[in-house]
């Protein structure tokens, strides 16, 4: 695995910062039932930015902090493109998501 925990940590921090700068970060918590989704990205219960904030970032942060194995492959960009195309220019956020995908596509 050619990536380090520190590199992943840096990208996760950048992702949070980008969500905040794009005003897509929520200061409200979500109801417990929205986390019961069985669909990828919890499509039926939350927006993609909520999934990033409430599921992806905490999970990745936990993996980094506990030094548990990181995913072998991530493909967030197709969902990001679909989700953010109607939300205007999210170029910095899209750049960070692409960096995450590239980091996790290395073999």
SS content category: mainly alpha
Provide the number of structural domains. 1
The amount of beta strand, in percent, is under 5%
Spell the H/E element sequence: HHHH
Oligomer: single chain
Unreliable parts: none
Number of β-strand runs: 0
Radius of gyration: 14 Å
Shape verdict:
globular
* Sheet with most strands: none
| Helicity level | 55-70%
> What is the straight-line distance between the termini?
7 Å
Number of helices: 4
- Report the mean per-residue pLDDT as an integer: 91
Description:
The chain is mainly α and 107 residues long. The chain has one domain. The protein is 55% helix and 0% strand. The longest helix is centred in the middle third of the chain and has 19 residues. The chain is globular, with a radius of gyration of 14 Å. The chain starts with a helix and ends with a helix.
Strands, helices and their partners?
Blueprint: H1 5-21, H2 48-66, H3 77-84, H4 91-105
Helix pairs in contact: 1-2, 1-4
Gist?
This protein is 55% helix and 0% strand. It is mainly α and 107 residues long.
Highlighted features:
single chain, 107 residues, mainly alpha, 4 helices, globular
